[in-house]
Design goal:
Blueprint lengths: L4 E9 L5 H13 L5 E7 L11 E4 L11 H19 L3 E5 L4 H9 L5 E4 L3 H8 L1 H12 L3 E4 L2 H10 L8 E3 L21 E5 L8 H8 L6 E5 L5 H10 L6 E4 L4 H8 L4 E4 L9 H8 L4 E4 L4 H5 L3 E4 L4 H13 L1 H15 L4 H16 L4
Parallel strand pairs: 1-2, 1-4, 2-3, 4-5, 5-6, 6-7, 8-9, 8-11, 9-10, 11-12, 12-13
C-alpha cells in the first residue's frame, strides 16, 4: 500500500539558517514513523547541512521580498509549484509560514489537494507591519483546511489579522525539541556568570539589549553565537561600551555543536523584542539545564515556565538586574536549573509530531 505523501518546504536555502528549517527537519523526519512520506521544496543553498528529509526538490525561481517584485515572484513560483504538485501528486500540502512566497504558491497551486498551513512567527510579524504581507497571510489562511500555531498568543494574533473569519481553523500545537539523554550544563560556584545568546542576529532578536545589559554589570561574560545582518552593529556597540574583553562573537554553530557548548555557560539570554513563535533555542537550552533570562513577549512566559526569569522587551537595565540577581544566589541558579529541565520535558518533539500526524489524517478528509 502506498504511503500518503506530504509536499512542503520553505523558500530558503536548505541549510539551518533559521529555526523554521530546523523544526521542519525534526518534524518531518519523525512523521515517517507515523506512515507519511515527505518531499521538502527549497531554494539553492550550501547543501552541506545534514538534514533529515528523505526527498527534496530544489526550486529555480529567484526569491523576491515584499514590494514591487513580489507579485511576479509569487506568479513564477506558483507555476513551478504546480509542476511539483503534478509530478508528485501529494495527498496533503503543508504550507510553512503564513506569508512566504512558497506558502502562497502552495495555496494557489493546490487544486483539490487539502492544505494545512503552519505559522512560524516571522510571517505573522511581517503581516502586522506590511499591508501586502497581511493580504498574503489572509489568502493562505483562506485556502487552508487548518492553521497550526505554536501557542495561544500566536493564535490570537492570526485571528486578529484575519478579522476573526477563521477562528475554528486555528489549532494550537505546542512545538518541541529532541530531548537529550541528560543535561550538559550544571550550576557551578562563583559570582561571575558565563552567559550565552544564540540564534539569528536580526533586529527582532534584539541582541543589542543583551550587550547593553552586560555593560551595566561587572565581571560577567557574554558569548554571542550566530550570524545575521546585525553582526556589524553589535560588534561596534560592544566596542563603544568597552566590552571587547567581556563579549565574544562566534559564528553560527550546527545544532550538535551548539549543544556541546551549552555546558560552558551558566544561563542563556533570550532578548526577542516583539513576537516569538516558540523560542526553539531557549527550550533547547533548558533541556540541557540552562536557565533562561527572557523578554516577556506574548507567549514566552507560558513556553519557558518556571525555568527562567522574565524582563520587559528592550529593557537593558531590567535584564542587568536579573543577571546580578542570578549571580548573587547559587540557590536560585540551582532551582532554575532543575525547573528548566522539568519544563523542557513537556516539549518533547515526539508529542508535536503525534499531534501533526493526527491533524494531517483529519485534513486529508477535509476540503479547501
Amino acid at each position: 500500500m502506498t504511503r500518503p505523501l506530504i509536499l512542503t518546504g520553505i523558500d530558503l536555502p536548505l541549510e539551518p539558517s533559521c529555526g523554521s528549517t530546523i523544526w521542519c527537519s525534526d518534524v518531518y523526519t519523525r512523521l515517517a514513523g507515523h506512515g507519511y512520506d515527505t518531499v521538502f521544496a527549497h531554494l539553492p543553498g550550501s547543501g552541506t547541512w545534514q538534514h533529515g528529509f528523505a526527498a527534496t526538490a530544489q526550486l529555480a525561481t529567484a526569491k523576491a521580498p515584499y514590494g514591487p517584485g513580489f507579485d511576479a515572484y509569487a506568479h513564477a513560483l506558483t507555476n513551478e509549484v504546480a509542476g511539483l504538485v503534478r509530478d508528485h501528486r501529494p495527498d496533503l500540502i503543508h504550507a510553512q509560514h503564513l506569508g512566504f512566497g512558497l506558502a502562497l504558491a502552495f495555496a494557489r497551486a493546490a487544486g483539490d489537494t487539502p492544505m494545512v498551513s503552519v505559522a512560524h512567527g516571522t510571517d505573522v510579524i511581517a503581516a502586522t507591519e506590511h499591508k501586502q504581507a497581511r493580504a498574503v497571510l489572509n489568502e493562505i489562511v483562506d485556502a487552508s483546511v487548518s492553521v497550526i500555531v505554536p501557542n495561544p498568543a500566536m493564535a490570537d494574533e492570526v485571528n486578529r489579522l484575519t478579522d476573526g473569519r477563521h477562528t475554528g481553523r486555528l489549532l494550537v500545537v505546542p512545538w518541541g525539541v529532541p530531548l537529550p539523554e541528560a543535561p550538559t550544563a550544571h550550576p557551578r560556584a562563583g559570582r561571575r556568570l558565563r552567559l550565552v545568546h544564540a540564534g539569528r542576529l536580526d533586529t527582532n532578536k534584539d541582541t543589542i539589549t543583551a550587550i547593553e545589559a552586560l555593560a551595566r554589570t561587572t565581571g560577567h561574560r557574554l558569548t554571542v553565537i550566530g550570524s545575521g545582518d546585525e553582526l556589524d552593529t553589535l560588534t561596534r556597540r560592544a566596542a563603544e561600551l568597552d566590552l571587547a574583553d567581556r563579549v565574544a562573537f562566534e559564528p553560527f554553530l550546527p545544532r550538535r555543536d551548539l549543544f556541546k557548548r551549552f555546558g560552558d555557560f551558566d544561563a542563556m539570554l533570550f532578548t526577542t523584542r516583539t513576537l516569538e513563535a516558540y523560542g526553539l533555542v531557549a527550550v533547547e537550552a533548558q533541556a540541557h539545564g540552562l536557565p533562561v533570562l527572557f523578554s516577556n513577549v506574548p507567549g514566552m512566559a507560558a513556553t519557558l515556565g518556571a525555568g527562567g526569569l522574565e524582563f520587559p522587551p528592550g529593557d537593558a537595565v531590567a535584564l542587568a538586574t536579573l543577571i546580578d540577581k542570578l549571580a548573587a544566589s547559587p540557590t536560585t541558579r540551582q532551582l532554575l536549573h532543575e525547573a528548566a529541565i522539568a519544563n523542557a520535558r513537556g516539549y518533547d518533539i515526539a508529542h508535536t509530531v503525534a499531534h501533526l500526524a493526527a491533524l494531517s489524517r483529519t485534513a486529508r478528509g477535509g476540503s479547501r
